[in-house]
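Input set for joint prediction.
Command: fold jointly, output tokens.
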Amino acid sequence: MGTEDKSVPRLLTGNEAVALAAIEAGARFFAGYPITPSSEIAETLSRELPKVGGVFIQMEDEIAAMSAIIGASLAGARTLTATSGPGFSLKQEAIGYACETEVPCVVVNVMRGGPSTGMPTLPAQGDVMQAKWGTHGDHPAIVLCPERIDDAWELTIRAFNIAEKFRTPVILLLDEIVGHLTEKLVLPLKKQPKLFDLPQNVSKEGYLPYRFDGEYPPPLIPVGQGVPYHVTGLLHDETGFPTNDPDLAERNARWLVDKVENHKDELADVELDEVDGCDILVFAYGGCARSARGAVRMAREKGLKVGLFKPRTLWPFPEKELQEAAKTAKRVVVAEMNLGQMAHEVEWALGRSIPVELHSKLGGEPILPTEILATIEGRD
Amino acid sequence: MERVDYDKYLRTSRIPHIWCPGCGHGIAMKSILRAVDHAGWTKENTVWVSGIGCSGRITGYVDFNTLHTTHGRAIAFATGIKLANPKLNVVVVTGDGDGTAIGGNHLIHAARRNLDITVVLLNNNIYGMTGGQCSPTTPQGAKATTAPYGNMERPFDIAGVVAACGGNFVARGTVYHVNELEKLMRQAFLKHGFSFIEVMSPCPTAFGRRNKMKNAIVMMEDLKERSVSVKKAKDLTDEEREDKIVNGVLLDRDKAEYTDLYRQLIEQLRGS
Ligand SMILES: Cc1ncc(C[n+]2csc(CCOP(=O)(O)OP(=O)(O)O)c2C)c(N)n1
Ligand code: SF4
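tokens >
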């Protein structure tokens, strides 16, 4: 299996799909550190990247890997790293650095059971809040979460597009179910994402790498092109130099968050299934959405009016889309493999106007469709 | 010493700098600039990367593409830059806390890989920026804010550690011996492969005052008195060498460099 023969249907795992889609998206630099259940991404890229002139490096730890992809991105490469829980924790300081220095990159986290070493080979969705709040300080968060292999392919490409356009790290959050499951991929996808073309011929004259007043950040002129700007994790002005001026510092900090929050509509990405006029709305994402689909089908066979809401962008949270989908719902069921990280968000988004019931499961076994069905029917 | 137009390389609008009077870091910065000038490196092809600390502030003052990164990780950032664009010259400036404590792992691995970057470690035996806590190079018995009764730990011979890990060039110099330092810097900057230079740079504020060296002049004299050449050091006993600063070239060789090896792999796979 290589990067050739793109139109031939292929069997791929989620991890392989992410790796190959990254190359498709133009990624030419990967730095990582082995960790289950994400290692196949590193392994695939170690084989495939040099074939397309890209570079793979296994670093000495996850902090180094995260730092290296930021460096490579500043040098002009599209970059990614991949990890799981413990490694994702280690990367957080550098993720914050990428937020503050507005360096595009993609960070894949294939979730395992946690906390700590947790359950390395088994699925969980316990890093949903960490993906948003893992690094210190107010900061932007864009998090995409696939359910299937075609999803994984498409969202990987979308992750790179968003990272470049918003000049910020994008987290691609898989769980072990999606990372290790094998499915057929037929290209081109029905919704084949277009690659984001960076604006060309950015003027070097008077270049301000950190303008705070645009719609989007100015494109990054890579280092080594004769524009000697400064990059620092200290709060800075529009030139990039550190500032202690309270107004400038606040503008810098707000800009990072605003540039994302102002484009919530553009970033919102949800899959809806028969939500119009539904009595019960099921909310599920990632590997859990697969079980939720089965549960919803069984419930409909029993005559219940059940809709499915699957966010593919977890952060920013698609609250408007959720409010719309839940318009007629009398109950919302959230199925997730954590203790309710998204259920709280759903409750908040709906203004506590509709009862939200959580079906959660820890321990490493996927939630079964019949289990979600029981919650839909109010039997548990 | 060559005459160099420093203003050409400095962001004069960012000066005055933050360093204390008598700090060695400014002398080290000038030495690096002379080496960069001598190597013919320009703003178009050179990137400076630093970590966090007083040493790390150098990147704010030199007019190149500069990265002031996170504490200890400058070498890891530099690794990404160099691999993504091997044509760039990459200078890393780090401190003894930055480079040997929190960043020690990245230092030894970059040396092992023999990546073509130049790492300058400014060793003032203390955490300067945070006010004088112990570092892994604080001498045994010295006082620090976190070693009020004297430091119990043995310090790193960090140049020795790096030389043991790999790389193509390792040297040590001091900001007192500027002419000799310039020669070492030139060699380090011209060397293809990983090169490392440890620069002893006094911190009168956070180290000297607590350790019976009341000002910068006394600290400079201390550097002078304790220094011996690599050659002379060979004739000393371990005990005699204990508090000496061994200056000169510790490693100089030409092992295969990492980005060259990677380029060869790409060419081989792509059949060109
Ligand atoms: C992760 C992290 N831990 C701690 C700090 C606090 N800190 C800032 S500078 C510094 C020590 C720097 O000492 P050194 O590298 O010796 O440089 P010097 O200031 O002496 O030049 C520390 C511990 C930090 N910025 N980040
Ligand atoms: S505290 Fe020490 S290292 Fe920092 S600027 Fe002052 S003298 Fe230099």
